[in-house]
Amino acid sequence: MAAAKWNTSKATGWVLFSLWAFVIVVVSAFFLAGPAVLGAYDDAHHVTLTCEVASAEASTGSARSAKGIGASTPQVVIESADCGEFVLRKGVAADNSREVASGFERGAEYEFEAGDGSLRVRGLLQVFGVSPELLGHRRA
Measuring CA to CA, which residue among 94, 114, 100, 107 is closest to residue 57? Predict the structure, then answer.
């Protein structure tokens, strides 16, 4: 049986090629430049939320950089029923991560400072298994 032959004009071929090239460029820009743009926006636009802490656990996460995935970094994952999940990396080291996590009292309210951009695209970040990073926190 002979293979099906595509009957496309040169114009249609160029349109399809251009469309695919555009998709590849947009997707590449999203993954390469997106994190840097989001980080810069977050640094300039902080939001303070008052949240009740449900749990806080020491864990290890991967640092990301413009050169790709970096080394494992200690972090504290904080869950809140009213605000969702956050990651705290600032001030957390391998030797103090459990101490930092145990410093959060379950059921107590805290003021969390996070980037506005990360909070706005939180649903998209969750698709990739990423939680917004806390820029600061204190007991409310």
Answer: 100
Position 49 confidence tier, pLDDT thresholds 50, 70, 90 = very high
3-state helix, strand, coil in the chain (%, to 5): 35, 35, 25
Specify whether the CB–CB gap between 64 and 109 falls below 8 A.
no
76 contact partners, CB below 8 Å, separation of at least 6 = 56, 57, 58, 59, 87, 88, 92, 97, 100, 101, 104
Whole-structure pTM value: 0.72
- Closest by CA position to 133, among listed 78, 58, 82: 78
Nearest residue to 56 via CA among 32, 35, 76: 76
